[in-house]
Amino acid sequence: MRLLYIWLLALLSGFALLPTTSQATHVRAGEITTRRISQTSLTYEITFTAYYDEIRGRDAAREGDEYTICFGDGTSQLVRRQPPVFINGRTSSINVYRVVHTYPAANPYTISVTVPNRNNETKNLPAPSEAIFFYVSSTILISNNLGQNSTPIMLNPPLDSARVGQRFCHNPAAFDVDGDSLAYRLSVPKEGLEIVCPRFRDIPGYQSPTRFSRTSETGGTPTFQIDSRTGELCWDAPGEEGQFNFAFIVEEWRNGVLIGEITRDMQIIVVDNPNRRPRINPLPDLCVEAGTLINQPITATDPDGQRVIITAFGGVFNVGQDGQPLPAGELIAPQYAQLANGNTPINQPGTATFRWQTNCNQIREAPYDVTFKVNDVPPRGTTSLVSFQTLRIQVVGPSVKNLTARPTATATGRAIQLSWDPYTCGRAGTTIAIYRKEGCTDIPLDPCQTGLAASTGYQEIARVPLTATSYVDTSALRRGVSYSYRLVAQYPDGSSTITDGVIDQASLNGGQSIASNQACLELPLLAPVMTQVTVDSTRDTNGQITVRWSRPIGLNPGDLPGPYQYRLQRATGLDAQDFATIATINTSLLPNPDTVFVDRGTPSAPLNTQANPYRYRVEFFYTSTAGQLTRLDVTEAASSVRLTTRPANRQVSLSWQANTPWANTNQTHLIFRSRSGPNGPFNQIAEVSVQGPDSFTYVDDGTDRLAADGNTSRTLSADSSYCYRVMTRGRYADARLAGLGLLINYSQVSCATPADTTRPCPPSLRLDSLDCASLSPESGCNQTSFTNQLAWTPTQGPTCDPNIATYRIYYARYQPDTLGLLTSVAAPTTSFSHSSLTTVAGCYYVTAVSQRGLESRPSNLVCNQACPYFALPNVFTPNGDGKNDTFRPMRCERFVERVELVVYNRWGAKVFESSGPTVNWDGRTSDGQELPSGLYYYQATVYYAVLERNAAPSVIKGWVQIIRGGGA
């Protein structure tokens, strides 16, 4: 019966009829992997690895010599099996089907295979599970932009045993030879629907393993999940014994792009016996420099006291799933890792030693994952149980060694010579990046941190070839400043390359090395030092600035031959570089006070200190042995302090800046103010603690906060101008310049007139509105024009401007429409008549406008509502006597916009309708036919001119009697 059932199922499902036997059950697990084997063509080695049951499905396993692999490009091939490898005491076998295929173009391709039949008696698949055709697939993305690529391989066979009530975990030990990032997610096992080329679907009736669980190992809710980072798949915990299949997907990512997926369909057998699973002690993540020898103990225990067997899986061993070594360099370049004391029963607690001599070929950005597995060794007849731990190893590039820095001379006179040992851990394309920062503070770096983060203060200034061992830094070096340097090897990005079908690991390097040691140097002070640039006089012509500088502190008499000379240079602007010499001063190197120069410009080029800041520097010359004046060095440039004033509401905002080699931060600056104009007198009004680059500011509200030289506090007026001057204090950070003390400088004078943004207070508005309840039906009778009377009262407050020039009246016919400007009236008028209205309905507010043209906020909103009225009689006599000849509203109507009238006779037929501003029916039909005397019914829909736009109309229903032949 079983054979007949399988045959019928295959026929109904559209399968090609295949030979089957009563032992057709055999496929336990499998996956498809690929490997790019050509640098010049899209040629891949494709491997389908299947795991067969060698107990119940031995005969079927023997018959599985060839299966069709579909390449995803519309082609397929029948592929023969390599000799099987038996594992797990010959209860299972690893069967490899390998083929080479060349793809026509760069595209995504899904490679797949279908095998009849799965294992029978798999509990979470619909019975009979042997009738379900096994199906797996892998997707690869061939892209010209992503370089060479091979899919990850899984080095741990997908066959394990678990125990009822105990947490079970499996790790596939996936390894990606290109160092791409891997991610894991659960999937549903698939069923093939045909052999060539297969259609497939999720297996109908597949059940999650948790359906066969009662509780977790600790008594909580059972779970079945996979760690997306490590690939560890755990079922916590099986609830009954039996055979179970499930699937998961390994995603391969590069540069944020998903470039491949592999599906592994795997099987476990759950037993119910008293054996408890062994444990591996937790393992730390490791980070080592290439060249480090790793000796990591792996310790396992068994709660039942049984011996344990520790095994390991990972690309670092260069060993396949069958435990056999792979061709040299297939997964990593040698040396390969080893597991001492592993793969053999040992007494517990048992320890095996993971040993790996790393080298430069193994540097990569992605870590290496090594999966350790422990089996217990129970008595004969009891199923062995397993546990896993993953060791994650980051192999980083070693640092450049023995970096030193020393001063040197170049044509510009300012340089630092860097030297280091030859770097031996790079490959073609590797460069050395040179980083620099100011100051000698040595920032501790994480031993696994590669490169230099921006937070360290370092910035890259140059990059040199791998073969370089020195560099001369001349870029924007400042005298008296300490500079620190570090080097980082920068490896070329890219995936593996292929030579003669073998992956070359030497190109796998990516990212950066660990930073070198820090080398710091203070440049000698061979130039004068700027100490002051202060503005003495602020004028558009004939301004004046005093400039001071010191002698070259690091130069002693006799170091260089004299005589010596200073050349003072000036440029216009805070950051200007177009320096021109304005003075030449001969000097000696004897101890002397600072050199002073008062710059007044020239008649042809006067100083405009009112409009411009100025920048100064000093060149220093000595006399060479040939008797020629030769420039030794030049000072850092220093600018004058530039003050900017901006008007605010009865305030003046001040900000100032200077471009100087000394720091003006962490000092107290002084603010001076004159109420009498730019020529003073100036009073000190405030002190400002300047702590950072954003604190060179002050807001003057008229208060004198330092009254020792006279209290000048009073509110700033928008009718007056105020002038300011700032005194800055600064200091050099270099300890060698500490003797120069505080450096005092004054800004130019800057004047400003405060603004006045004070607005009037909003008025208080009232409106003479209708009292609808008090109106009689005759009130407003036949009135077609209306007037709204508005009146308001000005209000005052301590922050309001009382000087009102006009009032603005805003109006909207409907509520809640936006009010628009209706009109303005000049103060002191406080009332307005809004006349010639067709209705009193509408809303108003009023604003006050100051003499400076500033408008207040709106007053309170007031609205007037109409009092509509409309009534119809119940008889009229259309006999032409001029009395009661038409059907029209009684007495009068009020605020009516439109009336829609429909009249019906007593049989319900419509005889008349009209629409207009009122009702005036003469007793005729709509087409002019005179209607006879009698009773008629009407419906009047009345629309009123009220406050609400689109207000609902009033619907009036009633009857009216037409009487002809006499008056009414």
Known CATH architecture of the largest domain: Sandwich
Radius of gyration: 48 Å
The top level CATH class name of the largest domain: Mainly Beta
* SSE-based structural type: mainly beta
* Poorly predicted residue ranges: 1-23, 495-509
Q: What is the overall number of helices?
A: 2
Q: Distance between the terminal alpha carbons, to the nearest Å?
A: 107 Å
Mean pLDDT: 89
The name CATH uses for the topology of the largest domain is Immunoglobulin-like
Helix content: under 10%
* Total number of distinct structural domains: 7
Approximately how much beta-strand content do the residues carry?
35-45%
Major sheet: 10 strands, mixed
Tell me the total number of β-strands: 65
Outline? flat
What's the name of the CATH homologous superfamily of the largest domain?
Answer: Cadherins
Signal peptide: 1-24
Pfam families: CHU_C (PF13585)
Organism: Spirosoma sordidisoli
Protein name: Gliding motility-associated C-terminal domain-containing protein
